[in-house]
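Morning!

This is the sequence you dropped in the shared folder:
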Amino acid sequence: MTWHVDAEDLRAYAQGELAPPLLWSADTHLTGCAECRGVLASVSEGVDAGWDRIDAELDAPRPGLWERLLVRAGIPDHTARLLAATPVLRRSWLAAVVFVLVATVGVVYTADSPTAFLALAPLLPLVGVALAYGPVLDPTYEMAVVSPVHGFRLLMIRTVAVLVTGLGLNLLATLALPAYGLRALAWLLPALALTATGLALTPRLGQVLAPSLVGGVWIGLLVLARADGGPLVQFTAAGQGAAAAVAALAAGLLFLARDRFDVFFSRSAA
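The structure's back. Tokens below.
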């Protein structure tokens, strides 16, 4: 047999695009020509691979603006995806935080005292970090759990993202209180202490109970200090030193308990 089906015709045949009468000739020829059948097999594999690549491109999720900016900043794709999927970085949460901060700053101007802002500001990062991971709010939680990322590293990625955002919004709100000077920044160390303590207790108490307990203790201390009638001790020099010590201690305990987060995430996903 000296005649063989042209390679382009075989490619069209594999794609189902070869029209009669060439289609009939190719059908008849392929039944008796092993060489053309081999060429057809190689062409078909290339076509299938091409369609697979096209399907993969079509099925791949389109990165959003925030994710694209992170990638352009040099952050690896998988880390940018985990950051962009953080639930509390969505517009609804950010809008709620901005509203609460604006309302609190308004209360400060009305009452002529920064106490309300100082009491509330440390709680916002704590709540934000608590809501940054977990099967309830995170639509990518199962994907994150099975990803090749250490549980503690995943937690730190989300925590840093939330802290940068939350503390940044708090600092912007602080700028609206210039009359109080450095006193308006007295929320910063308590915020770090509360967040670090809540994270350190999470493997033992759970994602909900740990921050709830820490937040409840903070509110209780504020109520007790207010009942004494004097200045809130949490925002004095001694209170700031205690907050710094608690933050350092909690950060150390969090580092020591880092391996427990893999078990915690696996148990939460079950």
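Headline: Residues 108 and 115 are 7 Å apart (CA to CA).

More detail when I'm at my desk.
O.
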